[in-house]
Amino acid sequence: MARDTVETHFIQAVEALQTGPARDPGAPVREGAALTLERCRALYQRQLDSRLLDIAARWLRGEGEGFYTIGSAGHEGNAAVAAALRPDDPALLHYRSGAFYLTRSEQAGRLPEQGIRDVLMGLTASAEEPIAGGRHKVFGHPELAIIPQTSTIASHLPRAVGVAFSIERSRALGVRSPWPDDAIVVCSFGDASVNHASALTGFNTAAYATYQGQRMPILFVCEDNGIGISVKTPRGWVETAARRPGIEYFAADGCDLADAYDTALRAVEHVRTHRSPAFLHLSTVRLMGHAGSDVESAYRTQRELRADLARDPLLRTARLLVEGGLITPDELLRRYELAREHVLRVAKETTRLPRLGSAEEIMEPIAPRDPDLVAKLSPVAAENATRERTFAGTLPESEKPLTLAQSINRALADALAVHPDMMIFGEDVAKKGGVYGVTRGLQKRFGPARVFDTHLDEQAVLGLALGAGVSKLLPVPEIQYLAYLHNAIDQLRGEAATLSFFSQGAFPNPMVVRIASYAYQKGFGGHFHNDNAIAALRDIPGLVIASPSRPDDAPAMLRTCLTAARTQGSVCVFLEPIALYHTKDLFEEGDGGWLAPYAPPSRWAETHVPIGSARSYGDGRDLTIVTFGNGVRMSLRAAVRLTQEGYSCRVLDLRWLAPLPVEDLLRAAELTGKVLIADETRHSGGVSEGVMAELLDAGFQGQVARVTSADSFIPLGAAADHVLLSEEEIEQAARKLLS
Ligand SMILES: Cc1ncc(C[n+]2csc(CCOP(=O)(O)OP(=O)(O)O)c2C)c(N)n1
Predict the structure, then answer these.
(1) Which of 97, 229, 299 to probe ligand 1 with, by most ligand atoms within 8 A of CB?
(2) In DSSP terms, which residues pair with 36 in a beta bridge?
(3) With a 6 A CB cut-off, is 229 part of the ligand 1 pocket?
(4) What is d(CA 598, CA 400) in angstroms, rounded to the nearest whole number?
(5) What are phi and psi of 704, to 5 degrees?
(6) Is the CB of 624 under 6 A from ligand 1?
(7) pLDDT of residue 633
(8) For a disulfide at 397, which of 116, 255, 600, 603, Cβ 3.0-4.6 Å?
(9) To 5 degrees, how large is the angle CA 149–CA 151–CA 152?
(10) Residue 152 Cα: closest atom of ligand 1
(11) Closest Cα to atom 26, ligand 1: which residue?
(12) C-beta separation of 514 from 548 below 8 A
């Protein structure tokens, strides 16, 4: 394979080196350095392997066998960061972390060959690749405590902070953690990434926690090559952005292994002993362009490119070894050639490995579901609850019938009693008990370690959940209003929902995200408190969307979500209709039709609600009204009036918006031959689109109609009624179908 400029330069520069006098391999590479010649030699090997993997990536791409060429060339100084850490320190890595990965792999007792194969299998999308199994090229491995990252720059920082938080919180709660008590988190990223909102969330959350005296053992590592694709980072900006109260700043030349190693040691020591954050700023270069397809000369001068070449970290380490008398240039180049040949040979072998061959195989790690297991665990939870809640004052089943908000509150309390590792957190959830009182009293009863307020940043809320989930805690974050999920939705779409997929289930991140949702609030109007759009959730593969509407369903559905999260790593979103939180009546004032008694643990098995199962009201044979959320109450009221007119209707509460309860839907549709979908979400992208498609796909021959809210944002006051689905519209549409 032909050599490019970087390789040619390396070879010529090594040839020109002068061998220094022989020295003791245990001696420092230079006076005062912690890095010994021996260690330098070992790290050079991993830096070299990483460089050769980049060369192999180019070759593979040329052969049409490689599918990823963002390399690590110029960033090989990150081998020093791995060397300064322990192999059980959780790591969330930048995509230029080849040398880190190979160094850690060796540190963990694996043969260098294994690390090399892992990466090559990633490049060639082999189904045998150990982490993503051919789904993506990521750096990750469960035995190396490396949590794989998506390619969205900086999206891993909120999770990294969540992991650091969880190391400390697991210890405080006395629950088992996959990380050692004294572990620290390392999280690396590029210089352009420092500007991203999710990076800022990470830095700010770490600083905020430290400011309040909380422990936050995280090492941020910025690998600063001065450019993000083609956009230069202003000189000095990374340091300016990095320096924050509570975050100790360290800087080193990432091209000089000795400086990088010594400084990384000090930074790691700081984080480990003080349990507080540090920012390690490694200056690096970017060699071989941003990625394989990148023509750097279009936006960088030859002078700039030459300056980067001159700082080649592999060459700088080679020089330390040659001038330290450990090896001659000839020998170093001889070994270089041997290693190059070897890596290219293994690369070729890797192309013969099987690749993913079917949709089933690809999708297998997406939200594995075992409904029987979840159902079976219901009595276990009940047994635990019975034991754990004896201390409580009034048991909820002894209370008078509850509202939806009260029933969720009691179910959360029971769940906290059952799961000692469950935490509830979000904006205002603790002392205030949430804007609508749903979490009221929980902090008092279960303490501030388990029920706590976060600062005002939805990305941080979900980041804590991501870190806690991957640390085997059971997070139940709250997003204060549905509209505000959108500020942070990539933390669900790009991070939470994909991790099982990209790690073949090795790193599940269970969570149940509670969200105060939908419209029809009286007294607190406007769009953002009355958002009715969930399209951005509905298409996320594997995501479970629960939408309880009644107090007799919500606790059971919450328990199902928690059990699915706990046992199968499910990422669940629990949409709570704000307007029904405190509703008491159904048909007429004082009838208490929207209240329900709380089921005691002895009835949890029989009241279990599997994911994707609807609830049917009535046994009408003329029309099925398919609905959910606020639509259930409106449809029940409309159905009663239609019944009085002699029509026979049934109402089907979908309860789960993903996966949709298709079987129940089809059964109900066939029973009546006529279906009206009453959908409070928008006409476009709303739930009814999915319901109609399911009916069509299944070949339903009957009549179908839908009524929805308008494709509008929601205005203040009574004007909202002009764009929201109404009871009258449901009734009229039903009458039209029936006549
Ligand atoms: C959120 C997001 N926006 C845009 C991109 C496309 N993108 C990939 S790498 C990159 C530049 C990142 O630069 P930097 O953080 O400096 O890292 P470097 O590649 O230089 O190591 C961009 C814009 C992305 N991956 N994620």
Answers:
(1) 229
(2) 28
(3) yes
(4) 9
(5) -130, 135
(6) no
(7) 98
(8) 600
(9) 100
(10) 26
(11) 152
(12) no
Ligand 1 neighbour 296 (Cβ under 6 A): no
What are the average pLDDT values for consecutive 10-residue runs of the chain, which has 739 residues? 92 98 95 97 98 97 93 98 98 98 98 98 97 97 95 96 98 96 98 98 98 98 98 97 96 98 98 98 97 90 96 98 97 98 98 97 87 82 79 82 98 95 97 96 96 98 98 98 96 96 96 97 85 96 97 97 95 98 98 97 94 96 98 98 95 97 98 98 98 98 98 94 97 96
Measured from the Cβ of residue 195, the count of other Cβ atoms closer than 10 Å reads 15
**Interval 310-352: pLDDT, tens:** 999 999 999 999 999 999 999 999 999 999 999 999 999 999 9
The number of beta carbons lying within 10 Å of the beta carbon of residue 612 is: 19
> C-alpha dihedral over 315, 317, 318, 322, to 10 degrees?
140
- Per-residue tokens: 275: 């349990």
Ligand 1, atom 12, lies closest to the CA of 228
- Measuring CA to CA, which residue among 661, 609, 651 is closest to residue 631? 651
Residue 343 CA to ligand 1 center (angstroms) comes to 28
**Ligand 1 atom at minimum distance from 155 CA:** 1
Q: What is the pTM of this model?
A: 0.97
Amino acid at 189: F
Q: Decide: 225 in ligand 1 pocket, CB within 6 A.
A: yes
Distance of CA 232 to the CA centre of its chain: 29
Does the C-beta of 153 come closer than 6 Å to ligand 1? yes
Is ligand 1 within 6 A of the CB of residue 190?
yes
Residue 394's pLDDT is 81
Catalytic residue, candidates 529, 608, 683, 722 = 529
Report d(CA 158, CA 55) in Å as an integer: 33
* Count of CB atoms situated within 10 Å of the CB of 705: 16
Cα distance between residue 442 and residue 429, in whole Å:
9
CB–CB of 386/605 below 8 Å? no
Ligand 1 atom nearest 75 alpha carbon: 21
DSSP-derived 3-state class of residue 604:
coil
Torsions phi, psi for 615 (to 5 deg): -120, 135
Nearest residue (CA) to ligand 1, atom 13: 228
**C-beta of 227 in contact with ligand 1 (< 6 A):** yes
pLDDT tens, residue by residue, 33-62: 999 999 999 999 999 999 999 999 999 999
Average pLDDT over all residues of the chain: 96
The pLDDT tens digits of the residues spanning 474-491 come to: 999 999 999 999 999 999
- Residue 390: per-residue pLDDT: 61
Q: Compute the distance from residue 51 Cα to the ligand 1 centre, in Å.
A: 20
Instruction: Output the CA angle 734-670-614, nearest 5 degrees.
Output: 80
Predicted confidence at residue 80, as pLDDT, reads: 98
Whole-number pLDDT of residue 384? 84
Cα distance between residue 166 and residue 188, in whole Å:
19
Tokens of 31: 């006076």
Q: Rounded to 5 degrees, what are φ and ψ at 736?
A: -60, -45
Spacing, Cα 189 to ligand 1 middle (Å): 9
Can you tell me the distance from the alpha carbon of 708 to that of 720, in angstroms, rounded to the nearest whole number? Answer: 14
Instruction: Give the C-alpha separation, 166 to 471, whole Å.
Output: 6
- Cβ–ligand 1 distance for 151 under 6 Å, the answer yes
